[in-house]
Design a protein that fits this description.
mainly alpha, MetI-like fold
């Protein structure tokens, strides 16, 4: 049974209309509102000390999440893919926890743990080390919501490839580290890069969990999404959209990296 000839143009029209309304139109709105006061107003907004501080904090969070989740994500994926052990099902279930739990709930969890009345918070308070409403809390919350990406992407590849190549390397006398860097890592490199890109994108755009643990102290604990929300709430619309355009630019760079990774993985 052949499909109706009208089906293809109808589906294309619906898809184009959907993309225009939900993607192209909002992007146009951000850019047009950011430039509402001209280039001078735009550059004045993004060069503000608080804006620069928000950009630096967002980049710091993204860098921290990429490093920490790449290291531990690959370790967890390797353990789950290459070994059988009691509690493996629990470990794989916990990987999905950040997807199942609301970011706001995750932020509250860290407040309960590291707040002044929390179990761990009392310990750090005795050391005069602030976690909540400070940089460590923001890093912890960001790392939690971005944790699964590298682990899940590399785990799938390791499971598909099996253990035959590693076993061959061991039989030829290669040690564990040499086998990992010479055999395992090259086999998962594109999945690893893809996971890193996703981690970076989520870390820069995270709002819910960070909003709970940060306290929104302007110039100190406000990431770009938080600073945009503060500016918009204060009716500083041009400044809010200007900073939003910077976040949009970072998102475009992330998407470009994702595209390049996918293209390179298909060639290899």
């Amino acid at each position: 049974m052949s499909e109706p000839k009208i089906l293809k143009p109808v589906l294309l029209l619906i898809s184009a209309a959907f993309l225009f309304v939900f993607i192209a139109l909002p992007l146009y709105t951000i850019i047009s509102e950011a430039l509402k006061d001209g280039l001078s107003g735009y550059f004045s907004a993004i060069s503000d000390d608080y804006a620069i501080s928000a950009v630096k904090l967002s980049l710091l969070c993204a860098g921290f999440c990429v490093v920490i989740n790449t290291v531990f994500g690959v370790m967890i994926a390797y353990a789950a893919a290459k070994f059988e052990f009691r509690g493996k099902t629990v470990l794989l279930t916990l990987l999905d926890m950040p997807f199942a739990v609301s970011p706001v709930i995750a932020g509250l969890m860290f407040v309960l743990l590291f707040g002044n009345s929390g179990f761990l918070g009392k310990f750090f308070s005795a050391l005069n080390f602030d976690v909540i409403f400070a940089l460590p809390g923001i890093l912890l919350a960001s790392a939690f919501v971005t944790f699964p990406f590298v682990a899940k992407e590399t785990l799938l590849l390791m499971q598909e490839q099996g253990n035959s190549e590693e076993e061959a390397a061991f039989s030829l006398g290669a040690g564990g580290l040499r086998t990992f860097f010479s055999v395992t890592l090259p086999n998962i490199k594109w999945g690893l890069f893809y996971g890193v890109v996703l981690t970076n994108a989520r870390a820069m755009g995270e709002f819910g969990a960070v909003a709970v643990v940060s306290g929104k102290i302007i110039g100190l604990t406000t990431t770009m999404p938080l600073y945009i929300e503060i500016l918009y709430s204060d009716y500083l619309y041009v400044a809010a959209f200007s900073v939003a355009s910077l976040l949009l630019l970072l998102s475009v760079v992330t998407l470009a990296l994702k595209f390049l990774v996918q293209k390179a993985s298909k060639r290899s």
